[in-house]
Amino acid sequence: MDFTQKPTNSTPELTAELAMIVYNKIKEAGNADLAYKAQADSALEPEWFDIVNKEGDRIINEIISKENGTFIVEPAYPATYNEDGSIKEEAVPAVYFDASDTNFLINSITSDLLDVATVYADYKAK
């Protein structure tokens, strides 16, 4: 038997307001599966919990990457050489995101569903 949740044609659209409700339920329950099962009236679609969970993970992974200095803003380019071995173009080192300004970090991440500032605050509160 296949018990995986699959979107149906009748699933209503997930709005940012509903996504934040789902996000808060996931935060309270500890994970998306428990949050869905804890609903008293099953008013929120099961697909929404999966979508919101993945979006939250994406935001947190981007925060971690930017804070660790591994998020590349501009890629590195190796030096190129002429046939005689002289340098044609100098090597260009990669440019990494500078996460020293928290507001800049938060504003650099976009989401159509979740409030990035809230996700950031919850991530830091752990």
Shape verdict? elongated
Number of distinct beta strands:
4
* Strand residues, percent: 5-15%
Strand order of the largest sheet: 1-4
* N-to-C SSE string, H for helix and E for strand: HHHEEEEHH
How many helix segments? 5
How much helix is in the residues? 40-55%
Which regions contain 5 or more consecutive residues with pLDDT less than 50? none
Mean pLDDT equals: 91
Termini separation (Å)?
37 Å
Radius of gyration: 21 Å
Q: Class by helix and strand content?
A: mainly alpha
Characterize the biggest β-sheet: 2 strands, antiparallel
Provide an overview of this structure.
With 126 residues, the chain is mainly alpha-helical. It contains five helices and four strands. The strands form two sheets. A two-stranded antiparallel ribbon has the order 1-4.
